[in-house]
Amino acid sequence: MHLWMEIIDKPEKMAAAYGELWRAQLGREREYYDIVRKRFNETFKPQYLLYLLARCVKASVRYNSEGAFNQSPDNRRRGTTPETMRWHISAASKLLRGRTKLTIGDYTQVLRIARPNDIVYMDPPYQGVCANRDPRYIEGLGLDAFAIQLRALNERRISYILSYDGRLGERSYGKPLPKDLSLLRIEVDTGRSSQATLLGRNSRTYESIYLSPALVDRIGSVSKRHLTIAPKQESLWAQDGA
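The structure corresponding to this sequence follows.
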């Protein structure tokens, strides 16, 4: 969250800090990654996290049992160049500054202040993938407790979008959400699984998006229940910043 605060409120400072780290790695990329990772685990400074995200395998955060960042670097690349990163940071700042309030706390606190005119987007740790301790998260999210929160939102007629589970080929992850929630499920084809490809299989990954009853009522009928993902953030930022 502190990284997003710096990106939104101090984009030039964050871009400059990232550029300094990126250039300092040249010629000793593998060694320098370990140095920055150690610094981040000691200080939690946001510029170190940004560098690690640009360099680590699959841009995926991993933590050890003590809560320290321990993901390995992708040694095939140096990470996003400073010029490109500066553009991304500037675009994000222009899009979000003055329109966004960042908070740190339990998600139930945010849900309690939601109003019927709002739209809530939730992207919790996927159940099924996080049945045991998952190194991507400090802790998981229990299905039963989460379902109670969703029922409360339904009773208050809150519109929400939930990204929660998925499947790899024909294999589904996690238990289905309770039917009494009356959620509309949309399946998003996110492409071939890189892990399956490494194992010589041609399996596709699908993620589930759920729409609340209140949101479906607001937008009317949904024509497609199966979608293919396509990147749109950059075009959105470019239009907004023009």
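The longest strand covers residues 159-168.
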